[in-house]
Amino acid sequence: MNILKTTQLSKIYGNGETAVHALQNVNLTVDKGEFAAIVGTSGSGKSTLLHMIGGLDVPTSGKVFVDGQELGAMTDEQLTIFRRRNIGFVFQMYNLVPMLNVWENIILPVKLDGKLLDKNYLQKIIEILGLKQKLSCLPNALSGGQQQRVAIARALAAKPAVLLADEPTGNLDSKTSQDVLGLLKITGEEFSQTIVMITHNEEIAQLADRILRIEDGHLISDSSSCPGSSSRQTGSIYRG
């Protein structure tokens, strides 16, 4: 069952001769529990695509569906609530609240939504991510890898339908990157979490179940990251 779907998704910035076609007729689906990596160079459109499917930006044309709900059919208020409850974000810069400790940062999205904490679920996340001894620490007392683990825990706290990761290891060294991505994969499998990650790093992308490649705003290929698997073409590959 697909949890994420885009149809003829396009995004144009500017007008006339200066217009930039960041996305052009992108069609994709991501199944529940899948870990998909979107790979592309700088300026390829991968960040724009992530912002569209996360409801952070509005497409010029086309539609985005998350868990069966069309994002473009919602009011701003409805979208804010839906995004908080159904879409988790992990950013390159961590975006932790500096005056809140690790525990307070993790539970922040649940508190903002006025929901009761599922402490058993949260403790399981904390244990898997190795944060049990760091709950009272402020972010500035943590390493980059530890801060990114906190960001992952926070993104999972509200049990989102989709977890979106934007270059989540961009500020980490190679070993820490592998550790963090390994933990992200483990949490995804443990909680049947759907993950969509964008990266320019081919090695990191290989950790995903599926790799989608984007170039000049077009989704040009879609394949399993497992050796020997057949690839399938998706989306528009027009290069006009």
Alpha plus pi helix count: 7
- What is the terminal-to-terminal distance? 34 Å
What number of domains? 1
Low-confidence stretches: 227-240
SSE string: EEEHEEHEHHHEHEHEEE
Q: What structural class do helix, strand and pairing data support?
A: alpha/beta
| Average pLDDT figure | 89
Assembly state? single chain
Q: What can be said about the biggest beta sheet? A: 7 strands, mixed
Report the radius of gyration as a whole number of Å.
18 Å
CATH homologous group name: P-loop containing nucleotide triphosphate hydrolases
Strand content: 25-35%
CATH topology: Rossmann fold
Top-tier CATH class: Alpha Beta
**Helical amount:** 25-40%
Architecture overview:
- Strand 4 and strand 5 (about 70) form a beta hairpin.
- A seven-stranded mixed beta sheet has the order 6-7-8-3-9-10-11, sandwiched between helices.
- It has helices at about 45-55, 75-85, 100-110, 120-130, 145-155, 175-190, 200-205, and strands at about 1-15, 20-30, 35-40, 60-65, 70, 85-90, 160-165, 195-200, 210-215, 220-225, 230.
- The model is unreliable at about 225-240 (pLDDT under 50).
- It is of the alpha/beta class and about 240 residues long.
- Helices cover about 30% and strands about 30% of the residues.
- It has one domain: 3-Layer(aba) Sandwich (Rossmann fold).
